[in-house]
């Protein structure tokens, strides 16, 4: 993914704006719900790592849904981590949803610590996806899964018109034009990124569903 300017950690002022938008915007809320439902269905028990967790909404919703799980969110932005810690405290879920400032390329966890690693709407920020996936592979248990979700930019026309039908012109303009213009990947970019991953996953692939692309790996 070649970009002229790539900001990995979201700046402080943008962290507050993003967390507000993500809490209110039905399109982002629906993407988060889809992730929460799918991840909750695909993990038997254990610990989940959320990379680029932002305001922590996905981890908090997962532990609300499944009281046998623990989720740790990491983010480069200390402001995002502060917002996430506060949200978990408010929901009285801090014992099962905790957050740390960390870079995906240098995760402060021992080898094979997590049963599942997820990431939502963060992959397009990553400057070294292959390196980060090697690090994710290190902290993942054998047999563990990785689901990385991001917005798809090169959607077919039918998908865009479905989005317009579902959310109306204003919200779909925000999602399809404004947000997607700088925060998304194409299928080709996802395929290229996948082909550069040399960590020893037993399975890897890409799924595309509506405006979401999912990269998945099994160790
Ligand atoms: C658009 S936000 C998405 C936040 C959240 N996952 C969500 O779905 O609402 C992307 C987040 O990824 C974080 N991020 C980007 N690169 C990162 C990296 N290399 N390591 C950790 N976090 C990163 C940014 O700081 C930002 O908070």
TrEMBL record:
Can you name one GO molecular function term for this protein? S-adenosylmethionine-dependent methyltransferase activity
| Domain Methyltransferase type: start-end pairs | 49-148
Name under which the protein is recorded: Class I SAM-dependent methyltransferase
Per the UniProt entry, what are the Gene Ontology biological process annotations, in alphabetical order? methylation
Q: Which SUPFAM superfamilies match?
A: S-adenosyl-L-methionine-dependent methyltransferases (SSF53335)
- Which region is the signal sequence? none
> Can you name the source organism?
Candidatus Aquitaenariimonas noxiae
Q: Keyword set for this entry?
A: Methyltransferase, Transferase
Stored Gene3D superfamilies: Vaccinia Virus protein VP39 (3.40.50.150)
């Amino acid at each position: 993914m070649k970009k002229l300017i790539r900001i990995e950690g979201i700046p402080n002022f943008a962290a507050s704006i993003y967390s507000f938008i993500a809490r209110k915007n039905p399109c982002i809320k629906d993407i988060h719900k889809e992730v929460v439902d799918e991840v909750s269905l695909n993990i038997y028990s254990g610990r989940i790592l959320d990379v680029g967790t932002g305001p922590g909404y996905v981890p908090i919703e997962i532990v609300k849904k499944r009281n046998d799980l623990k989720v740790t969110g990491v983010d480069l932005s200390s402001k995002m981590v502060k917002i996430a810690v506060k949200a978990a405290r408010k929901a009285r879920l801090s014992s099962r949803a905790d957050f740390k400032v960390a870079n995906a390329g240098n995760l402060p966890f021992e080898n094979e610590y997590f049963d599942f690693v997820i990431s939502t709407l963060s992959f397009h920020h990553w400057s070294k996806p292959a390196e980060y996936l090697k690090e994710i592979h290190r902290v993942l248990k054998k047999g563990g899964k990785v689901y990385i979700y991001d917005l798809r930019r090169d959607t077919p026309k039918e998908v865009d018109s479905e989005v317009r039908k579902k959310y109306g012109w204003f919200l779909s303009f925000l999602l399809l034009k404004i947000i997607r213009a700088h925060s998304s990947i194409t299928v080709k970019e996802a395929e290229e990124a996948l082909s550069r991953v040399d960590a020893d996953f037993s399975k890897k692939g890409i799924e595309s569903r509506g405006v979401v692309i999912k990269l998945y790996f099994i160790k």
